[in-house]
Design brief:
The complex is a heterotrimer. Chain A is mainly alpha-helical. Chain A contains 25 helices and four strands. In chain C, the strands form two sheets. Chain C has a five-stranded mixed sheet. In chain C, strands 4-10-9-6-7 form a five-stranded mixed sheet. The radius of gyration of chain C is 23 Å and the shape is elongated. Classes of the chains: A mainly alpha, B mainly alpha, C alpha+beta. Chain B: Keywords: Membrane, Transmembrane, Transmembrane helix.
């Protein structure tokens, strides 16, 4: 079993591994390295601010320091750390052997590593981003940031976001489909619920930022004036797009950490958590409410008071689900027999720091107070209380809790406690002072201040605290290192926890479970302390390796009834190759060699083709033995396979991006100055009507091609009809793009319409590619009556292309015809 | 999947209602609806209040349906559907409050016109109201930082 | 409110010189707008301290009590988790919305309009007169004391933010937009102003001075302007 699931030997093995434990560990370690870099930047910032009129670094360097500190901590530390923990832990908690798309995890890691490296390298060349981590236009636009700095941010962060989107899709599908037999959704470990909700939020939260980055890069590279007020653009559009991502981002970071608390705290209190259903209700509420808060970052932009009121109300409401969780946790401790072990200590640190952060958050949600406190050190202090309290402390708790799982060794309590106290004291010293100095009027992002302001002592103490905190983190790293090399071997379940990740030998084997458990309650390990031994002896499901396949169970979304055996792909260099080509695309844009970008895009498409081609081996296996007299098909021969759901969630994310684009178009039309634009798109609707008509006709063909009873010949015929329609529609859209739209640099209208048409054309081309892929699979004999997923995916994306084309044509042609 | 969507149905409905309120508000300001009087109120407030009531009503109907719905496969998901419907209803009531409490459009929407000092017209959008509360002497006496070291040390 | 406010001011003066005062302090209000917001802050601070004490107290007692009995969902979740924050938040929300509404720049007979134009990295100020007269000043904003002043905030390049902490909250200066901020200086005096939104390499030094004049002196300013 180990031979099947382990990475191969040598460098090739290291580069080609797709195993979730390998990828998860890599994410975690890389994120910690970036965290250390971010901490060093923070200490440089605090050194500069320690005394008035300091000449340690000039403003040019200082601006890069705080921009990079924020960007690194948000994009290169927090989100990847969550991805790493999810990749490592989720399959183990759910009783599976890997994530749903192992190659996608590996691809995500390489994208993250390359994108992060681009960002950090820029620091050494002195061209790091310097417009603040939220990159407000027009400061980040070409006239005010002529250098490459802003491009580094837009390209590097978008590259990293690719991995976040991949992780989101993967977590959704893994939680919903890859659970152990019998693991009903209402008995799922809370951590899995938290990650499910987080992934959903990432799916909807990240596309606005990706869209904003694309638009800003288009403005910087080609002078398309989305944010230029002189040509119908609006700088506030950037703020809307950024915070539409940026606020949910806070909860995307907080929720997994809260999941750690909900997992670790009951174990430390030696009881079960109270209000399981209430907590799920609370996080679902948070997930949606947090998308209605973004304007509270924009209370001082002159938006009318009534609109501010809507967002102020939503910002106040969002504190209620957080309150539910806090009191559920405290009640759990009351109900149990709490032990003040090291993980619990970090959780107590979390309570103190996070509650303060939550209280200042409610203060900032009040519009009038926000007018004073906004953009001051008070806000900086608040967000650190929320993020360090709501993320770093729970993660430290999780780290000391799960380290035995990673290393198979016992923690060293004393060193860990010293590290905690240094971090806790240092943190509070730093950021309590920053609350004070913010109320005394110190704005964010100033590099120097005169003595007369009366901020000197606060800043000096804050800087002092920052260094104490740094010692604490160093001690934590030392503690981990000592544990890895010197710690004593631990027993199998050191905390006497009840969840499935402890039902395996430590450190965890590459395949997690020699056979998969059958789950009937919340805490399978508590119910059956011998579960780990039984599974190791092969008493569970899928215990017999066959053909060297990587097998895990696919089960019903709600009931956990086994539905199919998932055959997972083995180690391959394909993810690395695809990530390198993706990197080539981004770097050629960064370097301004735009001619090379399409070449790399084609290379990515070729890699993706190869990737999809090697997903299944195209044979029919019929029903296979899964153990316990259960006979199941492989996933490719069953409806609702992971690939199907992955495609559905990708469309959800893509649709969010498109919806945001349409919002931007409507926003500019109603709010920005300089509208209506001087020239509209050519009003003639004929080309558009023809394109829509053929695409709509082809969607009927798509329905027939995916029909259950269709023969292969019929499927092929209908797919060819789709291809024809897509070619015609694509040609018409390209013709429209080339002839009907005014020059994009003339006005934000023309630029936005151009992006809308390119978006529609791109998706028709994508549908064409997928339809061609399905045809090639039929020709190769990989499609059968049972194996139709290629055809279904092509049909799905065809439908999406039809929908977006219809919206684009309506939104652009109707106003032109009315004018 | 539909059972999962139903479990957040109330919140999704809130999101739709919230978006409609915010979107309508922006359109109304752009089109100058606050200047159009209809009886005691203006067109904007009328439309927004209507949208608010319709949103609340729709979510209330959805909530009623959820409480009457036949049980599904997983009791927890049914309970979540009822809970999220009720919570979404409550959130819709609260987040619509500014419709009756707040000034509709900022001065941002009002074209700025040059006037004489002390003569600010009640142009479209702003309501004519009595002057802002007059200054209270307490503040200044106690704490105004007078004759601060300006601007040499300060600037 | 005034008694409460006086008490707070008293506490502040007692705390120390370094307590609430300072050229840019939000807690040393010089006018009713900043005063109302400072009150809101003190109310919220008191509430926050109480809530923090309650939650951490419950947390600490959990370790002392060690009763190990079943926990009541009704008490912990419905009572403390839902009813308690909901009540507090609705009251606070209404308070905040009402104060925010009062600070809006509504039309009034004696309002003075002054244009504030931001650029990298200084502020220009110009009183708005009917015939286009008006002496432009750089880095110094002259206002009358005791009268509402509307600052018309604009920008010529990137986003800045106009902020005089002693007089009112801040208002962003956004290219392509015109924003309006109402402030009142209760007493003649000098108040510190600063650009609050990060605006590039000269952000830290982008400060200005506000001089509030008594009626006689304000007449002089106007005369000099014309």
């Amino acid at each position: 079993m180990h031979a099947i699931w382990d990475r191969g030997p040598g460098l090739r093995g290291a580069l080609g591994t797709v195993n979730h434990s390998d990828v998860g560990r890599r994410f975690i370690i890389t994120a910690f390295v970036f965290f250390c870099i971010g901490r060093v930047l923070a200490m440089l910032i605090r050194t500069q601010l320690a005394t008035p009129g300091s000449a340690f670094v000039g403003p040019a360097i200082y601006n890069q320091l705080f921009t990079m500190h924020g960007s690194i901590m948000m994009f290169l530390f927090a989100i990847p750390m969550i991805e790493g923990l999810a990749f490592y832990m989720l399959p183990k908690l759910l009783g599976a052997r890997d994530m749903a798309f192992p190659r996608l995890s590996a691809f995500g890691y390489w994208c993250y590593l390359f994108g992060g490296t681009i960002l950090v390298l820029s620091l050494f060349f002195g061209v790091a981003p310097d417009s603040g981590w939220f990159m407000y236009t027009p400061l980040s636009s070409k006239p005010f940031t002529p250098g490459i700095n802003a491009d580094v941010w837009l390209i590097g962060v978008t590259f990293v976001e690719v991995s976040a989107m991949a992780a989101a899709i993967e977590i959704m599908v893994s939680v919903l489909k890859l659970r152990a037999p019998g693991l009903r959704i209402d008995r799922m470990p809370l951590f899995a619920w938290y990650l499910l909700v987080t992934a959903l939020m990432m799916l909807i939260g990240f596309p606005p930022l990706i869209l904003g980055s694309i638009l800003l890069e288009l403005e910087r590279a080609f002078d398309w004036p989305f944010f230029d007020p002189n040509r119908g653009g609006d700088p506030l559009l950037w703020q809307h797009l950024f915070w539409l991502f940026g606020h949910p981002e806070v909860y995307i970071i907080f929720l997994p950490a809260a999941g750690v608390v909900s997992t670790v705290l009951p174990v430390m209190a030696r009881t079960r958590i109270i209000g399981y259903g209430w907590i799920i209700a609370a996080i679902l509420a948070l997930a949606i409410l947090s998308f209605g808060l973004w304007v509270h970052h924009m209370f001082t932009t002159g938006i009318p008071h009534m609109a501010l009121g809507f967002f102020s109300a939503a910002s106040a409401l969002v504190a209620i689900p957080t309150g539910i969780q806090i009191f559920a946790w405290i009640g759990t401790i009351w109900a149990g027999r709490p032990e003040l072990k090291l993980p619990m200590l970090h959780i107590l640190g979390f309570f103190v720091v996070f509650i303060i952060g939550g209280l200042t958050g409610v203060m900032l949600a009040m519009v009038p107070f926000n007018w004073q406190a906004h953009d001051t050190a008070f806000v900086t202090a608040h967000l650190h209380y929320v993020l360090v309290g709501g993320f770093v402390f729970p993660m430290l708790a999780g780290a000391v809790y799960w380290l035995p799982h990673f290393t198979g060794r016992q923690p060293i309590e004393r060193l860990g406690k010293a590290a905690f106290w240094l971090i806790f004291i240092g943190f509070n010293l730093t950021f309590l002072m920053m609350h004070m100095v913010g109320l005394l009027g110190q704005p964010r992002r100033i590099y120097s201040y005169p003595e007369a302001m009366g901020w000197t002592w606060y800043n000096l103490l804050a800087s002092f605290g920052s260094f104490i905190m740094a010692f604490g983190f160093a001690l934590f790293a030392l503690d981990v290192a000592l544990q890895i090399w010197l710690g004593r071997h631990t027993q199998r379940n050191p905390w006497r926890a009840g969840t499935l990740e402890w039902a395996m030998p430590l450190p965890a084997p590459s395949y997690n479970f020699a056979s998969l458990p059958s789950v009937s309650d919340f805490e399978p390990v508590t119910d059956d302390p011998q579960l780990a031994l039984k599974l190791a002896c092969g008493e569970g499901f899928l215990g017999e390796p066959r053909h060297g396949w990587r097998e895990t169970m696919g089960s019903h979304m709600l009931t956990g009834r086994p539905e199919y055996i998932v055959l997972l792909p083995g180690n391959t260099l394909l993810p690395l190759l695809t990530a390198v080509m993706t990197g080539g695309f981004f770097v050629s844009i960064l370097a301004g060699v735009y001619a090379l970008a399409p070449v790399f895009l084609v290379a990515v498409a070729i890699c993706a083709w190869r990737w999809a081609w090697t997903t299944t081996n195209g044979k029919n296996f019929g029903l296979l033995d899964a153990g316990h007299e259960l006979a199941l098909p492989v996933h490719a021969e069953a409806p609702g396979s992971p690939g199907h759901w992955g495609s559905v969630f990708a469309i959800v994310a893509d649709g969010t991006l498109f919806a945001t684009l349409v919002f931007g178009y409507a926003y500019l039309w109603t709010i920005a100055g300089g509208w209506p634009p001087p020239a509209l798109i050519a009003a003639s609707p004929i080309g558009g009507i023809v394109a829509l008509a053929v695409l709509a006709g082809a969607s009927l063909a798509a329905r027939k091609a995916t029909a259950v009873r269709a023969t292969l010949t019929e499927r092929r015929r209908f797919l060819w009809m789709m291809t024809g329609a897509q070619v015609v529609a694509l040609a018409l859209l390209i013709h429209e793009t080339a002839t009907a739209i005014p020059p994009p640099s003339s006005h934000a209208y023309a630029a936005t319409v151009m992006v809308l048409f390119v978006y529609a054309a791109f998706h028709v081309a994508l549908a064409l590619l997928l339809t061609g892929f399905a045809l090639a699979r039929i020709r190769a004999g990989f499609v059968s009556d049972q194996r139709t997923v290629d055809v279904r995916v092509a049909a799905m994306w065809h439908g999406y292309a039809l929908a977006v084309t219809a919206v684009v044509l309506l939104a652009t042609k109707v106003p032109a015809m009315l004018a | 999947m539909s059972a999962l969507l139903r479990a957040i149905g109330g919140w999704l409905a809130w999101a739709v209602g919230f978006s409609i309120l915010y979107g309508l508000h922006g359109v109304a300001c752009a089109l100058g609806w606050p200047a159009i009087r209809i009886g005691p109120v203006d067109l904007q407030r009328l439309v927004l209040a209507f949208a608010w009531i319709v949103s609340v009503g729709s979510i209330a109907a959805w909530t009623w349906l959820q409480w009457r719905a036949a049980p599904g496969k997983i009791a927890l998901l049914d309970w979540l559907a009822r809970g999220s419907a009720a919570a979404g209803l409550f959130a819709m009531v609260i987040s619509g409050l500014p419709v009756v409490l707040s000034a509709p459009c900022g001065t941002d929407a009002v074209p700025w016109s040059r006037g004489t000092i002390g003569m600010v017209g009640c142009s479209n959008g702003t309501r004519c109201r009595p002057a802002a509360p007059s200054a209270t002497p307490e503040h200044g006496e106690a704490l105004a930082v007078r004759d601060m070291v300006f601007p040499e040390e300060f600037g | 409110m005034l008694i409460w406010q006086r008490a707070v001011v008293g506490v502040c003066s007692l705390v120390a010189l370094a307590g609430c005062a300072g050229p840019l302090s939000t807690l040393a209000p010089g006018g009713p707008s900043a005063g109302a917001i400072a009150n809101l802050w003190w109310v919220m601070l008191a509430g926050a301290v109480a809530i923090f004490g309650l939650t951490t107290g419950l947390l600490g007692m959990a370790f002392l009590v060690r009763n190990g009995g079943p926990a009541s969902v009704r008490l912990w979740i419905i009572g403390l988790g839902i009813a308690f924050p909901t009540t507090v938040l609705i009251v606070l929300l209404l308070y905040g919305l009402v104060i925010g509404e009062r600070l809006q720049p509504v039309a009034a007979a004696d309002v003075v309009e002054i244009e504030a134009i931001a650029r990298q990295w200084h502020w220009r100020f110009r009183p708005v007169l009917a015939d286009g007269r008006g002496q432009e000043t750089i880095g110094v904003l002259h206002i009358p004391a005791g009268r509402p002043v509307d600052v018309i905030v604009r920008s010529e390049d990137v986003i800045h933010s106009f902020w005089v902490p002693a007089l009112a909250g801040k208002m962003d200066a956004i290219p392509g937009k015109t924003n309006r901020l109402r402030l009142v200086a209760a007493q003649p005096g000098r108040y510190g102003g600063v650009c609050a939104e990060f605006c590039g390499i000269g952000h830290s030094g982008n400060r200005f001075l506000v001089i509030a004049h008594d009626p006689a002196s304000w007449a002089g300013v106007l005369a000099a302007a014309s």
